[in-house]
Amino acid sequence: MVVDYEFMDRIGEGILLSLGRAQEARDLTYLGGQMGLLPPTHPCRSPSLPKRGTIRSCTGDGLSTRSAYGPDQELETVFGQPLHQDALSRKNAQLSGFGTSDHSRPGLSMNTLTHVDDSGKASMVNIMEKSSTYRLAAASGRVLLGTLAFDLVCANKISKGDVLTVAQIAGIQAAKQTSNLIPLCHNILLSGVKVDLSLNKELQAVEVHAEVTSVGPTGVEMEALTAVSVACLTVYDMCKAASKEIKISNIQLDSKSGGKSGDWHRTNM
User: Is residue 108 a part of any domain in this protein?
Assistant: First the structure.
């Protein structure tokens, strides 16, 4: 089997260039020459290794040598990546926050993904040490029906029955089943679930609002969002025979309270 090493090298170089990493592409070309992967006539083919403390790069016309050290530079590998204890320490500090919801830990910010462990895999958060507080979450959504379907809903003439009542019950049921639908949600005891649906004549839409309460160690935002989502889907299901233009939109968390992060309210309702 004949392997076209130059072609393989060009593929790697092209990928790096497409990512805007020209220096790394030149260094990859040089590395191919050092490993004997380039033809003898290639300008970057060199029989000798660079001196310690220097890095050779392919410039297209030949090799150039640059220092790997500087007054404010860290030691670099052939591919230009920093290799320094301070850089590694910073990386470890960033990773130290994964897999926990305790925002007081060093290196952990409010933006850290709590459902990811140190190795980057999905992980269910352990809430055993979190204190129980009163939790409330409110969410909303909208189903744009169009003229025909909206008029049928207003007149309660949809063939499947009372759209608003069925969707309301579906939303309540869905809130109680959230942990079965969302893999990393906890199975928590809900104190109350309230789902309201109303008709918006101006937009020819059904407005859906849900409010979920609980006393426990974790929030109920997902329960509120699940209630709204399933209620909207139920409206769609019951009205889809009347129109194929129905659109579900604006499903969002409106507010939450309780827990370590405190209260939050959406400002652009």
Answer: no
